[in-house]
Design goal:
By secondary structure, the chain is of the alpha+beta class. The chain is 54% helix and 10% strand. The protein has a six-stranded mixed sheet with strand order 1-2-3-8-5-4.
Length: 496
């Protein structure tokens, strides 16, 4: 009897491990040269990205070289754990994922439900719709323009004391300060600097520790308490501190608003907007309870999205400026003439045509977020002739689209002037080729604010420093962001 049980268990394990291989081979036969097939037991995509980094110093370039050569595959079929994974790089196919987003569920890869699962990025259905509607006013162009003075002040403070030995930390501190003052302007929230650290450590565990990954996928939230390693305990402690202190900030603001002497601020921050809605609900229903956890998770979401991706995006643009010194001098001359004053105004930003084009090209050539968030298919379906089964993973391989000569001329040449010569240099454009900030209804709500931050930060750095590369770099993906190491390969030389 025991023998049969062991055989049954072995067969079950083998089916779980190699089950996706059947679908991968079947799909390869079905779609032929229109796809590539790849498989590695359990680790799948994680293995391929990591091995590419170790072998080539670049996690995605080998994929690009394979996918952007004739006959130009539209899909790649791989696996992740015991599921089939479908990567799509053809905009005519993946636009339906972005337009019909309700048919797919974003994979919450942070594993701690109390961190950001209820925030704007990972929420779903009516909850997401209400959150997006509520927050839209905070990201309107008129509201962003009101933050220009604050952005200039923050950037000046950090650049005047710039420590190039810790560039990522400096840029994260700069962008986090802008986000903090935009959304919790008068509160002491220095403790939030641990948020990018938490996200980074979870990303490292997910990429480098297969046993940790399997444990969390198998057990869910309870996995944090089952044989926790020291890194898990440290992450949990940081999360608990952040949640406690955010609760205190929210409670303090509620008490302030309840005072008879309270005066409505002229510029409302994120918390004011949320509490306005909550108090309106209380007037309609006295039994309504303010959801402190949702507000806290929303801020964690906005804080990370507005800090890490913007900081690494800025770092990658700076490296591109150093890599192409002739372009750097052209951009510097434009900044010196079009934004000569210390304060960079709305008009200055509009006049920095070359710099904005250079940022666009850098996002195409080396985006800080090279692929969109992993999703699961909710039900069996087809996108045109592409077969998708319930429970499969699907990912949009934007890093392939932007480097395909089918989509853009001379994709391997860095040429920022292509964005000046034509508004959109992508060929056969359906509105979904250039998706550095995603696309459709669930695009990045803070993209205009991020672009404004990047323009101000880079312009002010170029005014004071000349950028140089002193050693070769290796590219990596950590969590959702792509950047390079070592940081000190990029040097800042003070301009006279």
């Amino acid at each position: 009897m025991l023998c049969y049980l062991l055989i049954g268990l072995l067969l079950f394990v083998l089916f779980q491990v190699f089950g996706p291989l059947y679908h991968i081979l079947r799909l390869k036969i079905k779609y032929g040269s229109r796809c590539i097939a790849m498989f590695f037991p359990l680790l799948g995509d994680l293995h391929f990205f990591k091995s590419n980094t170790l072998k080539y110093g670049d996690p995605i370039k080998p994929f690009q070289q394979t996918m952007t050569q004739s006959p130009y595959p539209q899909f790649r079929f791989s696996n992740l754990l015991n599921r089939t994974l479908v990567g799509i790089n053809d905009p005519d196919y993946y636009k339906e994922i972005l337009q019909d987003h309700q048919k797919f569920k974003k994979v919450y890869a942070l594993f701690h439900q109390g961190l950001a699962s209820n925030g704007l990025v990972f929420s779903d259905g009516e909850t997401w719709y209400n959150q997006r509607k509520l927050l839209s006013s905070s990201f309107s162009f008129d509201q962003i323009i009101k933050r220009l003075t604050m952005m200039n002040e923050v950037v000046d403070t950090y650049i005047n004391n710039f420590n190039q030995q810790n560039m990522v930390s400096n840029l994260q501190s700069m962008t986090s300060q802008i986000v903090s003052r935009s959304f919790l302007q008068n509160a002491d929230i220095s403790f939030l600097q641990d948020i990018p650290i938490i996200f980074a450590r979870i990303g490292e565990l997910r990429m480098n520790n297969p046993l940790w990954l399997f444990k969390h996928l198998l057990l869910g939230e309870i996995a944090w308490k089952v044989l926790p390693i020291k890194k898990e305990t440290d992450i949990l402690n940081k999360i608990n501190v952040i949640k406690q202190k955010l609760d205190q900030v929210i409670q303090t603001r509620i008490q302030q608003r309840q005072q008879p002497s309270f005066i409505e601020p002229e510029i409302k921050d994120f918390l004011d907007i949320h509490l306005d809605q909550c108090f309106q609900q209380i007037q309609k229903n006295p039994n309504y309870k303010i959801d402190m956890d949702e507000i806290a998770q929303q801020f964690v979401t906005l804080y990370f999205a507005g800090t890490d991706t913007t900081a690494y995006g800025c770092l990658n643009v700076l490296l591109m400026l150093a890599e192409f010194p002739q372009y750097q001098e052209e951009i510097y001359e434009e900044v010196s003439s079009s934004a000569a004053e210390k304060y960079i105004s709305r008009e200055n930003i509009q006049q920095l045509i070359k710099l904005n084009a250079f940022i666009q090209e850098s996002f195409r050539y080396r985006p800080s977020v090279p692929t969109l968030i992993l999703r699961t298919v909710r039900q069996d379906m087809k996108i045109k002739d592409l077969e998708l089964k319930k429970g499969w993973f699907v990912v949009i391989d934007y890093f392939v689209t932007r480097m395909s000569e089918q989509r853009i001329d001379n994709p391997n040449v860095f040429d920022y002037k292509r964005w000046i010569q034509q508004q959109n240099p992508y060929k056969d454009e359906n509105g979904f080729s250039n998706i550095a900030f995603s696309g459709g209804a669930r695009n990045c709500i803070g993209q205009h604010m991020a672009k404004m931050e990047l323009t101000i930060i880079i312009a002010k750095i170029l005014k004071q420093y000349k950028l140089q590369i002193t050693k070769p770099v290796t590219w990596f993906i950590r969590g959702v962001v792509q950047s390079f190491t070592p940081e000190d390969a990029l040097q800042f030389i003070k301009r006279e």
